[in-house]
Each structure stands twice: as structure tokens, then as C-alpha cells.
Design brief:
Blueprint: H1 3-8, E1 11-12, H2 16-27, E2 35-36, H3 39-48, E3 63-65, H4 67-70, E4 82-86, E5 92-103, E6 108-116, H5 132-138, E7 144-148, H6 155-168, E8 171-177, H7 188-197, E9 205-210, H8 219-232, E10 237-239, E11 252-254, E12 259-262, E13 267-270, E14 279-280, H9 285-294, H10 305-314, E15 323-329, H11 335-349, E16 354-358, H12 359-364, H13 374-393, E17 397-401, H14 407-419, E18 423-429, H15 433-439, H16 444-449, E19 471-473, H17 480-493
Parallel strand pairs: 1-4, 7-8, 7-10, 8-9, 10-11, 15-17, 15-18, 16-17, 18-19
Antiparallel strand pairs: 2-6, 3-6, 4-5, 5-6, 12-13, 12-14
Helix pairs in contact: 7-10, 11-17, 13-14
The structure holds 3'-phosphate-adenosine-5'-phosphate sulfate.
């Protein structure tokens, strides 16, 4: 590709899951795919699970682009059909030779082959990324037992791995997906630390990371994709987790026997070989989360202490974990008052570091210049949500109290918190409009009714009632103290505060 074509080509940063797909396309893990799919392949895929040329392929690998970009690309002109795909910092990863742009349900899709430009960037444990060719180059001859470790490995999984490796006389290849937070919400780097912490409990192994993205759609197809990727990495036998039993991609999938802990000798063996009174079943994900939330140590019979230590580091007990308390409600509903009261009470106990992100104050600093248009409100809420999540990432408590009238903005704030490993409590202050209008502390409702201000939430701008609030409080007839106590009691009962 000539330099001036690259220089003049538009640059676009895809969504994280699309960047993960891109990395796998570039590394050869998605062989035979060499680029993002076009409409003919997608239609064929939907119809019969095959690409237009008949190759079996499990999931659509697509790139969505904003409408503004479409005008800058001309697929008929070789000098104007190149699109530079960049990472989140804007550094180029690849050049796409756009062969087609097509309308989708949500906007536009772009298809074409991709060629690597950058080194793939940085990031924690980047040195553990390997392409399939690199891994195949170092694997010993013979069978390769593959494990996709999207969750930490506890003793039951470690015992299954050891058994399978022994039975097959296979070398062990552990693939750690790091594209996005895993199913347990664990940050990718924390997952890698947990897997490495279990290394001395595994047979000799090769451990690599890869950005396996999450694809919408059914679990079977997602499992088929994983199987294909594992096969590309040289896996001959893939150890399935109990919830993904699938074959395909030219390898064998092993569904491990369910193991339990035998209290007589401390071994993990088949459930059926242990008398019920000596048998302990593996902890469920909910039980593990509960241990972590409360800060009780994961039992040694179940989890190697080194793994437990890493898990606790990433998910400290709730009373020490970062938290976003997000109040939403109409103007005058009492959310600022309650938020301030909760902040004061927590500051008095001294157990937490608090940041209060009040609607009015945010609009003076963080969101100065924003209006009350739908787009600006959305930006405002995303900014608040982002800052709150960063506070949470560092173990603090962020208390926010904007109106946040739209579901999408609130959902984005929740997602930011989740990705930062922080808790998120949505408090809907549901005081009805009539009561808010009666209070009308700032005289805004009167002005809105008189037509002096436009777009007032509740009057001529919508408030989408939350359906996912952890707590709903109507402050009509409630004293200040009662309202604040309700929130504090919720936080206490759910482990977010030190018991007193
Ligand atoms: S939003 O929708 O979440 O971005 O709003 P927020 O940042 O919380 O700002 C709400 C405060 O701005 C004042 N105000 C208005 N509210 C709603 N609609 C319109 N058109 C409007 N114009 C000004 C109002 O005083 C809100 O303060 P609170 O504390 O909620 O009463």
C-alpha cells in the first residue's frame, strides 16, 4: 500500500470487542478469515452457518462504522478505500482494504481484508500474547490439551486438568482470554495473575493470553468459535468447562467428569466414588463471590492460597471495595439532600474516602458549557459515571446525584463501574412530580409551566423511570433523617459498610 494512501486514509477506533476480533484476524487465530465479513457472507452465515464460499464458520465477525465515515470511503477507488483501524489511544493497528460498506440494523458495516500496521500496542501482560504460529512453534510434538481459562482455576478445575493431561499424556496449553472482563467481572490482568498463581499446581504448561471477544448470540456458536481458535493454536484436545460442551474445528472436546473433594484423604475424585458424607462439592460462583464480598477466606480445600490471595486483591471485601452510589430522580425529588446526608454520615465514620458528584457542582466544573439537550445530558451522565468509576477503581466511594433521566446513560454509568471492579447501587428517588413541583425550591417548575424555560425534566422533557434500581425511595412525608437512614441501612445490610 503506497505511503500517501495510508497517510490520507481516514482513521477509526472500533469498539473493544471489534478490536479483539481484529487482533485475532491479524494473528491468524480466525483462519481462514482474513478480514471483516461482508453482506454476502453474513447472509449465507445466517442461513446455513457457512460463508458464501461454503466454509463452515460459527459467528459473524463484523465491523460497525459511524455514518460520517462512509462518505470518506470509496470502495471503487483503490486510493480511497483504505481505512486505518486504531486502538483506543489512536495508534494504528491495521489497514483495511474496504471492499464493501452495507447498511445494518444499527447503522453501517464495513467489510474487507486487514493488514497489520502497528505492533499491537501495550497493556498488562502483553508479553504473554502469542500468535497461533508462535505457539505451534514452541509446542512439543504429540497431543496438546487445551484449557480456556476465562475464570480462575480452583482445585476442582486443577484436578480435572491434571487428570486429563495424565490420561492423554498431553502437553498443557492454557489460553487466557483477556479481551474484556471475564464472566466473573474480573479484570483481565487479575485473571492472568490468578492463573499464574495456580501454575505450580499444574503439569508443565504453556500459558498465553489472547483477546477473545464476546459475541452476541447463542452460547453454542460462541463455544464453536473458541474451539476453532483453540485448534488454530495447536490444541488437539480441548477441556470443556461444564457449560460449553461442543466439538468441531478439527479437535476433540473432552467433557470432564464432575469431581468432588474427598474428606477422607483430601483428594478430588469422581463424585460417584465418594460416599455422600465424605463428599464436598465445588463451590458455586455465587458462593465464591459471597466469600469475597464478605472477606472470609476461600477455604484451602477448594482454592490454593496463592489463587485466593490474587482473587482477594482484585475483589476486596465489599466494605473496602470501591462503590458508586448513584441517585437519580426529578429536580426537587430530594436526591441532593439525601446524597449529601449519606456523604456526611460516611465522612463521620471515617472508614471511607468520599467523592460527592452533585449535579449542579458537576455542571459548574466537569460539565461546564453543557446544555439540557438530550445529547448533552447524555454526555454529562457519562462523564459523571466515568469519574465515579475511577473513584471506585481506587477503593473510594463516589456519590452522584444528577437527574440522569435516561436509561442508557445510567446503564453506561453502571458498566463503567463494573469494568472498574467497583460496586454500583442505583437509588431511584421516586418522589412524584406533583410533590417536586409543590416544593419547587428553585422556582424552575413555575418557570417551565409559564413557558419561560424549555425542556424541563418532568414537564416537557422525559424522565425514564428506572427498572433496575437497587433501592427506590419516595421522600414525600419522609424526614431527612429517615431518608438518609434508609440508604445507609441498605449499604450496611449489603456489606458495603463496616458493621457497627
Ligand atoms: S441531567 O439531566 O442529569 O444532565 O441534569 P443535571 O446535571 O442533574 O442538572 C439538573 C439541575 O439543573 C437545573 N436545571 C434543569 N433540570 C432539568 N431540566 C432543565 N431543563 C433544567 N434547567 C436547569 C435543576 O436545578 C437541576 O437541579 P436539581 O438539583 O436536580 O434540582
Amino acid at each position: 500500500m503506497p505511503d500517501e494512501v495510508l497517510r490520507d486514509a481516514p482513521t477509526y477506533t472500533p469498539k473493544p470487542s471489534e478490536i479483539a476480533d481484529l487482533e485475532l484476524l491479524l494473528s491468524g487465530a480466525y483462519k481462514p478469515l482474513t478480514g471483516f465479513l461482508g453482506s454476502a457472507d453474513l447472509t449465507s452465515l445466517r442461513r446455513n452457518g457457512r460463508l458464501a464460499d461454503g466454509t463452515a464458520w460459527p459467528v459473524p465477525v463484523t465491523l460497525e462504522v459511524p455514518p460520517g465515515l462512509i462518505g470518506q470511503i470509496d470502495v471503487a477507488d483503490p486510493t480511497r478505500r483504505v481505512l486505518i483501524l486504531a486502538d483506543l489511544e489512536g495508534a494504528p493497528i491495521a489497514a483495511m482494504n474496504t471492499a464493501e460498506v452495507y447498511p445494518t440494523r444499527r447503522g453501517w458495516g464495513a467489510a474487507g481484508t486487514v493488514k497489520r500496521l502497528g505492533d499491537g500496542g501495550h497493556g498488562p501482560f502483553r508479553r504473554m500474547r502469542r500468535t497461533p504460529a508462535e505457539v505451534r512453534g514452541v509446542l512439543p510434538q504429540g497431543r496438546v490439551l487445551g484449557v480456556i481459562a476465562d475464570r480462575p482455576l480452583h482445585r476442582p478445575q486443577l484436578a480435572q486438568i491434571a487428570r486429563a493431561a495424565r490420561t492423554l499424556a498431553a502437553h498443557l496449553l492454557v489460553l487466557v482470554p483477556v479481551g474484556s472482563p471475564g464472566p466473573d467481572g474480573l479484570a483481565p490482568e487479575a485473571l492472568v495473575r490468578c492463573v499464574l498463581a495456580a501454575r505450580d499446581r499444574m503439569p508443565p504448561s504453556t500459558i498465553v493470553t489472547l483477546p477473545l471477544p464476546h459475541h452476541d448470540g447463542d452460547d453454542i456458536r460462541a463455544a464453536m468459535l473458541r474451539t476453532r481458535v483453540a485448534a488454530a493454536y495447536g490444541v488437539t484436545h480441548l477441556l470443556a468447562s461444564s457449560d460449553s460442551m461442543l466439538s468441531g474445528g478439527g479437535l476433540r472436546v473432552l467433557v470432564p467428569r464432575e469431581l468432588a473433594y474427598d474428606g477422607r484423604d483430601g483428594q478430588w475424585r469422581s463424585l460417584d466414588d465418594i460416599p455422600p458424607k465424605h463428599r464436598r462439592l465445588p463451590l458455586t460462583t455465587a458462593e465464591i463471590d459471597d466469600h469475597l464480598d464478605r472477606g472470609t477466606i476461600l477455604p484451602e480445600w477448594h482454592t490454593p492460597p496463592a489463587v485466593a490471595r490474587e482473587l482477594t486483591r482484585d475483589r476486596p471485601p465489599r466494605r473496602q471495595r470501591g462503590l458508586v452510589v448513584f441517585f437519580t430522580g426529578l429536580s426537587g425529588s430530594g436526591k441532593s439532600t439525601m446524597a449529601t446526608g449519606v456523604a456526611d454520615a460516611l465522612q463521620e465514620t471515617g472508614e471511607r474516602s468520599i467523592t460527592l458528584l452533585d449535579g449542579d457542582i458537576v455542571r459548574r466544573h466537569l460539565s461546564a458549557g453543557l446544555t439540557f439537550s438530550a445529547a448533552d445530558r447524555d454526555t454529562n451522565i457519562k462523564r459523571i459515571g466515568w469519574v465515579a468509576a475511577e473513584v471506585g477503581r481506587h477503593g473510594g466511594v463516589a456519590i452522584c446525584c444528577p437527574i440522569a433521566p435516561y436509561h442508557d446513560g445510567r446503564a453506561a454509568a453502571r458498566e463503567f463501574a463494573r469494568n472498574a471492579g467497583a460496586g454500583f447501587v442505583l437509588v431511584h428517588v421516586s418522589t412524584p412530580l406533583a410533590e417536586c413541583e409543590r416544593r419547587d425550591r428553585k422556582g424552575l417548575y413555575a418557570k417551565a409551566r409559564a413557558g419561560l424555560i424549555k425542556g424541563m425534566t418532568g414537564i416537557d422533557d422525559p424522565y425514564e423511570t428506572p427498572v433496575d434500581a437497587e433501592l427506590t425511595i419516595d421522600t414525600t412525608g419522609l424526614s431527612y433523617g429517615e431518608a438518609v437512614t434508609t440508604v445507609l441501612r441498605y449499604l450496611g445490610n449489603n456489606g458495603w459498610l463496616d458493621p457497627r
